[in-house]
Amino acid sequence: YNEHYHALSGHDMVEALKGAISTNEVNAAMGIICATPTAGSSGTIPGILFKLEKTHGLTQAQMIDFLFAAALCGKIIANNASVAGAIGGCQAEVG
């Protein structure tokens, strides 16, 4: 799709979605993933992170900083709201 059409959200968003969906496919195939914060939303962080790495040439140290910042945001949210899909629905998992 990305090669033949112009996505409304832009090329970068489609590339990030491709990474996110591939992570979810690994999860669905019983592969090993990092549930961030849940298995249902596990593709969000890798999709964004690897697109930023490709686009901006992030170093490994910058990617680790990204993960720590994402973890901190997740901790703040989890302390103030539910991240369980069973309680808050799918939107609670992804945010």
Please characterize this protein's 3D structure.
With 95 residues, the protein is mainly α. The chain has one domain. Helices cover 64% and strands 0% of the residues. The protein contains five helices and no strands. α1 packs across α2. The radius of gyration is 14 Å and the shape is globular.
The mean pLDDT is 82
Give the tally of structural domains: 1
**N-to-C order of helices and strands:** HHHHH
Low-confidence parts, pLDDT < 50 over ≥5 residues? none
Give the termini distance in whole angstroms. 26 Å
Largest sheet: none
Number of strands: 0
Count of discrete alpha- or pi-helical segments spanning 4 or more residues: 5
Q: Structural class, from secondary structure content? A: mainly alpha
The helix content is: 55-70%
Radius of gyration: 14 Å
Features:
95 residues, mainly alpha, 64% helix, 0% strand
In brief:
With 95 residues, the protein is mostly helical. Helix content is 64%, strand content 0%. It has one domain.
Compile the SSE list and pairings.
Blueprint: H1 11-28, H2 44-56, H3 60-80, H4 85-88, H5 90-94
Helix pairs in contact: 1-2
